[in-house]
Write a structure and sequence with these properties.
Layout lengths: L2 E7 L3 H12 L5 E6 L6 H7 L5 E5 L5 H16 L4 E6 L2 E3 L3 H6 L7 E9 L19 H10 L8 H6 L3 E3 L7 E4 H8 L11 H11 L3 E12 L15 H18 L3 H14 L7 H17 L6 H8 L2
Helix pairs in contact: 3-7, 8-9, 9-10, 9-11
Length: 314
């Protein structure tokens, strides 16, 4: 089974070194590092790595995770004979034996993706990488989500402990294995206009909506050393991350909810506005939020990252 790893990096050289070390130790067919125009010595260090399995794609500008995975998937399709790729960020890495566990899985063309169990360095489940079920699939899952909130449609802790493979609808791009032939012929590439956030959920929704399965396989384990939110509060730092979360989230909700979109979105928007109480600069937060909401509702995704940073600094 020809497996290539796709790692997207931007200015996290120390963590990238750990990620690349752990990845190469798993003996993949090849590793592609997509360098999002890093300025911290990453480019020079990658040039110094002497391993024939390593390929580097240096982008001329930072295109975020979405743009990085778009470019990486495309490069794999056009330049390799890979059967599968596995993708993740520069602050994530496979645990020892992860790739071997993947290669031992029975193969079926019905399976388009395999999602790993992702943990924090301390062993806790990485919440931002917890796979989920589309709550709008049927009335049962919708009621479960309405009563249970986030945990009403995200997989439970016992899925991780059971070691039983189960079907899911959505997964993050950390420890996600994808069949390359289906990327080429069916799904295309992640939407690079999203920059970061929800690009993975939107893409994996596309997989399941196209009729292919994504399996959560708890025996395949990854570590993700990442903290985006201030503990216990929905506070984004830097503030521009809130823009992408809200704008892109609206696109995801439209795809998932369909005709129930407004029923879902109005409470979400209200909650986002209430989050202003957690910010010292409430004006800046509300400005970012309102513009993000308007762009999301109008399907506008053409603002540059520089423009969004400026909006967040007002």
């Amino acid at each position: 089974m020809r497996l290539y790893a796709v790692i997207v990096t931007f200015n996290r050289l120390k963590r990238l070194k750990k990620t690349l070390e752990m990845t190469l130790a798993e003996n993949p067919e090849g590793v592609l590092v997509v360098n999002n125009a890093s300025t911290d010595g990453t480019t020079e260090w990658l040039c110094s790595v002497k391993d024939q399995r390593l390929k580097v794609l240096n982008l001329s500008e930072n295109k975020g995770g979405a743009g990085g995975f778009h470019a990486g998937f495309k490069w794999i399709v056009e330049n390799t004979d890979a059967e599968w790729l596995v993708c993740y960020d520069d602050d994530a890495y496979p645990k020892t034996g992860a790739f071997s566990a993947f290669e031992k899985l029975p193969d079926s063309m019905q399976i388009g993706g395999i999602a790993a169990a992702v943990y924090l360095p301390d062993g806790q489940i990485a919440e931002m990488n917890r796979p989920s079920i589309n709550p709008f699939t049927n009335i049962k899952t919708l009621l479960k989500a309405a009563v249970g909130g986030r945990m009403g449609f995200h997989i439970a802790d016992d899925w991780y402990r059971s070691k039983v493979n189960k079907k899911i609808d959505q997964s993050s791009f950390v420890g996600l294995f994808l069949r390359v032939s289906l990327i080429k012929d069916e799904w295309g590439y992640p939407d690079e206009k999203l920059f970061i956030y929800a690009d993975d959920m939107i893409y994996t929704n596309q997989i399941t909506r196209s009729g292919y399965d994504i399996l959560f396989v708890p025996k395949i384990e990854f570590v993700h050393d990442c903290v985006t939110l201030v503990q216990q509060k929905a506070v984004y730092n830097p503030l521009w991350k809130a823009f992408y979360t809200y704008r892109n989230g609206l696109k995801l909700y439209r795809i998932m909810a369909g005709r129930l979109f407004w029923l879902v979105v109005l409470p979400k928007i209200f909650a986002w506005i209430l989050n202003a109480r957690h910010y010292e600069n409430k004006k800046a937060y509300l400005t970012v939020s309102f513009i993000a909401i308007l762009d999301g509702l109008n399907g506008r995704f053409d603002r540059s990252h520089i423009e969004i940073i400026k909006i967040s600094q007002c």
